[in-house]
Design goal:
single chain, 309 residues, alpha/beta, DHBP synthase, eleven-stranded mixed sheet, 9 helices, mRNA binding, double-stranded RNA binding
């Protein structure tokens, strides 16, 4: 066999080194062979992702800078069967991007939980101040136990095992308010008076029952910070991803995952920090026997105070 030309060998060696150090950005963890009928859509998404290498650059502080091509839009089936299209979205989130994804209730603006700059950008995009608390989209109960004190497991003294009851309803359309631990970023909890649970270190946690949202969360190293998508001048949720894109792209949104229109039902918010799990906002999740409505909790406290007096 003839010896390889030295110049060719050196060129091949440099190419191999570059591939080893800088692998192709398209080799993402979710990648798999797409169905034949959807090859055209996949090529469109990848082409946009590939055309804009500057989009994936950010400073050493992990500050994401959107490129000139604008916001990335990825349309997926509500069933999540074509989750391979989410590859660029996973990469953008890891690099500090702020975007919109569907949940089992309404759409949410999300970003990486550990990226301080991204959290501040999320607040600017949504138009909310520091006193507005942010919630977490969690991958599992382990995440909830990491960033909050968790659900009561029950005691021999008769305390209810709320943990067991919660396990029956998640994933699901509930947001549970729990005391936050030191692992939860400080910039996500400000001392303010805009909401009833912003005065203390408390945070809302969710595990959505949505295949698209789950596919994104399960391919990230950490949960996502989130806030619901609303009209800028009205306290009303935006359910159409096309309208969301039109309104929020000029404000600096980096990507949107279009999973189809949602139904106008937010999550049911349950405050777990008091004596009883108390519903402070009734939403899509039904009231269960171990929950009490807010007016019932107030009535119970008034009765207790009267008896004590």
């Amino acid at each position: 066999m003839a010896a390889a030309d030295p110049a060719t060998a050196a060129s091949f060696s440099r190419l191999s080194f570059r591939r080893a150090v800088c692998p192709s950005p398209l080799q993402l963890p979710l990648s798999r062979t797409p169905p034949p009928g959807r090859l055209r859509v996949s090529s469109t998404v990848v082409a946009l992702h590939k055309r804009n290498p500057k989009r994936l650059k950010y400073a050493s502080e992990r500050q994401f800078k959107r490129g000139d091509t604008g916001m990335l839009r990825v349309k997926v089936e509500p069933s999540g069967e074509d989750f391979w299209k989410l590859d660029p979205v996973i990469d953008l989130i890891n690099r500090g991007a702020v975007g919109v994804i569907p949940t089992d209730t309404v759409y949410s603006i999300v970003c990486d939980l550990s990226n301080n700059e991204s959290i501040e950008r999320l607040r600017r995009v949504k138009g909310i101040g520091d006193s507005k608390p942010l919630s977490i989209l969690c991958r599992s109960l382990r995440d909830i136990d990491t960033y909050t004190t968790g659900f009561p497991r029950g005691t021999n003294q008769g305390q209810a095992n709320i943990f067991r009851a919660v396990k029956r309803v998640i994933p699901g359309p509930y947001t549970f308010i729990l005391p936050a631990t030191k692992q939860f970023p400080k910039q996500c909890i400000r001392h303010g008076s805009s909401t009833r649970y912003a005065k203390r270190r408390q945070v809302g946690v969710r595990i959505p029952d949505d295949p698209i949202c789950q596919a994104i969360l399960q391919n990230l190293d950490e949960p996502l910070i989130c806030t619901s998508v609303k009209y800028l001048s009205e306290d009303e949720w935006i359910l159409d991803p096309v309208i969301i894109a039109d309104l929020y792209e000029p404000l600096g949104l980096d990507f949107i995952v279009d999973g189809g229109p949602r139904i106008a039902d937010p999550s049911t918010v349950v405050d777990m920090t008091g004596t009883n799990p108390t519903i402070i906002r009734q939403g899509k999740g039904p009231k269960l026997e171990w929950m009490v409505a807010e007016d019932e909790e107030e009535e119970e406290q008034s009765t207790f105070s009267f008896k004590a007096a």
